[in-house]
Amino acid sequence: MDLISRLAVRTVSYKSGRFLFLTNEDGANICFMLSGAARVFRMTEGGDEVTIAVRSCQSTPILLSACIKGVGIELLEDSVLCFKATDDYIKASSDDIELRQYTIAQFMEFFECCHQRIEDLVLRSVEERVARQLVLLAERPSELQSKSSATVRITQGQLASLVAASRPSVNIALRKLQQRGILTTTSGFIKIASIDKLRNMSAVSL
Amino acid sequence: MDLISRLAVRTVSYKSGRFLFLTNEDGANICFMLSGAARVFRMTEGGDEVTIAVRSCQSTPILLSACIKGVGIELLEDSVLCFKATDDYIKASSDDIELRQYTIAQFMEFFECCHQRIEDLVLRSVEERVARQLVLLAERPSELQSKSSATVRITQGQLASLVAASRPSVNIALRKLQQRGILTTTSGFIKIASIDKLRNMSAVSL
Description:
2 copies of one chain form a homodimer.
Chain A: H1 3-7, E1 12-14, E2 19-21, E3 29-43, E4 49-57, E5 62-65, E6 71-75, E7 79-85, H2 86-92, H3 97-123, H4 126-138, E8 150-153, H5 156-163, H6 167-179, E9 183-186, E10 189-192, H7 195-201
Antiparallel strand pairs in A: 1-7, 2-6, 3-4, 3-5, 3-6, 3-7, 8-10, 9-10
Helix pairs in contact in A: 4-5, 4-6, 4-7, 5-6
């Protein structure tokens, strides 16, 4: 589906590491990602930052975020996004049943991400969450598929934010995984020797 | 907005305590709640049950769940629901801009619930989650407003599921709150002496 021509929007390219805060005054934008990877987070009233989801895509545009108060995005890769005011989006979908089907499907997919995040926090230990997150990062669409090893560019601080744990507990988890020969860490990078073993560690089929 | 006439659906009444599993074969229903209260949960492949949200409403219909694999509902009160196949829903919204606006607004509201759940799990202790959940239950729309005390009908097992903690740790949290004179527990009920004190305990503005 050619979202760009349907929505008549301009795409915007952003560099990896860029933060975008999506709370404009009216808070009424829907944001799509056309390529890249991002962490979607939320700032609490108390100033805490909570990661909601990590999302990536290669060719099919995905719903990255909608007009929810306090939501922000940190780009984990060079990315291409587009924005549309919610009211204009609703108007654009007036005569376009495909766009409406796409919208519902995208909302469902984002719910699925939120549900998985909740499942993760309720059921998995920090070590299992670290393992799962690394598998997801190593296997995201923008990476090459079907490989047995991978190098993931991420700091322990970023990883702690992605798995909702403290940096020290992420460090302990990584050291345990390193002792088992599953990965090695260097500054800013994690080299995964066996994605399969890491997948087994994450305690679920991914 | 008169959702029922717009969607041309029949409403269905359910008794408190009823479980509904929303994974029909095609998994393609959108479910709205017209009155009552429900716990939305998800069954994992491993057979664990994870609560996603607790939702209630009095007069304005809310989106309770959409066609996501493995989602179920436990009704916490006598409730009135209606269902619509997703494809039919999309067709119904063809010439109805108000319905499309309502849909987007409802999706946003449900995302907000999921986000709050994630925030809860990441930032709050079991005791804070118990306090917050009890305030939410005492103040849901179907209860009388603006009161200082309340009796909430809930078992410790249900409460454990709502706050994603073990029964023993919920029991410990409740005993601490009881020692401070904030509430008393009897079989199947929790009597809250001071909702204000409980709100302070939950560590956030609600």
